[in-house]
Amino acid sequence: MIWIEGHLVSRGPGGVYGERMVQGLRVWDPKRSKLAALYHLGKGPELEQKDRVLYLGAANGTTVSHIADYTEVVYAVEHAPRPMQDLLVVAGQRKNIIPILADAGRPELYVPIVEMVDLIYQDVASPQQVDILIRNISFLEPDGNLVLILKPKSIDVTRSPQDVAQEALADLEEKGVLIQDQVWLLPNYPDHVVFLCKRS
Amino acid sequence: MESYWFGDREGQACRPAPNDSGLLAERIELLAGTGNVSIPNWRIAVRCGFVSDRSEYLRVLQEAAINLVIKNLERGYQADHSGLIQMVRMLEQVDCTINLLTERAVDWYRATRPGFSRKLLLPSGRKLITWLHRDADEALSEVLDEIERLIEQRTTLMKKVSQRAEEVLPNCSALAGGLVAARLAAEAGGIRELAMMPASSIQVLGAKQALFSHLSTGSPPPKHGVVYQHGRVHGARRENRGKVARTLSSKLAIAARIDYYRKELDREFIEKAAERIREAGRRA
Questions:
Q1: Nearest residue on chain B to A93, judged by CA atoms?
Q2: How distant is the Cα of B67 from the closest Cα of chain A, in angstroms?
Q3: What is the ipTM of this complex?
Q4: Where does residue A21 fall: left (phi above 0), alpha (psi -120 to 50 degrees), or beta otherwise?
């Protein structure tokens, strides 16, 4: 990862969402992207030029554009039409973003085009977050990384986020995911926890 | 046989798919439907003679993927007639804007004419604008011109909404008029949503505030929302309005389902329904 004067940056064509530039590189704002927030906490997998990424919950393509700057190709899955229209514009400016309009919970719809990947990054607000990850795990190379941004409040608002996270963790381990680290995304994203995982 | 988005492979033999993003998008969709595809591998695509290298593979794939996304977006927007819903919302916003601007213009006028009082002023709407126009100063006149143009625009938009609704919601439009039908669909959140709604919900669509104040404080329930705009409802005697609104909504619920599933006008149903609604207005 490239750091300049305390800013996490990425190398690519700017102007995706009005991001700041430092020495010609795009500042990856931890307030706008949960993955950037994770890197600012000193955690998260090193992105490499050769990496292939499956991104679930791509939204408007803010984080997608930065990941695409670092990696070979990003398969960006988004279900909602409006953010997809923004994502299409971002994909049009880059050669290595493959947009997919589909529900991340139904990978059978995009299995024809997504190849085996080195990283699955998931950031979806769904009560079935754990299940969605499990359904997509067959796209992951045996030694690949999983980054799950868990939103406990999307699973159950009435319970404490810590309890929901613990339950999700147990659920993941039971379903063949090895959790190496868990990081609460404070201060930028209260009640968001990241699970850094591998296939077990 | 193994099928990939870029071709079919059988043992050593491999038949590449035609390299055209439109056809490839169709192929991807077809394959997704079969549920019997393997995770693709770009090396097979090269061996297949479909592309010459990795970067060409990604380029062709991106083009096909973007093509597919645009096709799906178009299809989605057409299926739920988002265009009509957006038109209705624009019409409502224009209405609201005209009222606000007119109010503001009257306030402005008042400040330049100490003898002016709203009490003396009988005309409303468009006539009010014309009235102000007679002796407004230059700056105000220019604004009034703009408001008048907006009112014209509103009329055009209203006709278009009505027209579209008659195509998209033929049965609802036949019962309640195009404009009311379109407003109901917009209020429900879509054509499909309207078709799924029980008649009792359709009856109070557009009366959200009254409905929730009824549910939370126990004030009398609303008799009607958007359906009030139908001539038979607001033309009915006060004590009869609830009944007319109820009958109309129950027929509209059926009409919405015919519109959504059968998509054609059912004259026999319309005649019977219209008779029932007339009947409801008659009985005291």
A1: B62
A2: 10
A3: 0.94
A4: beta
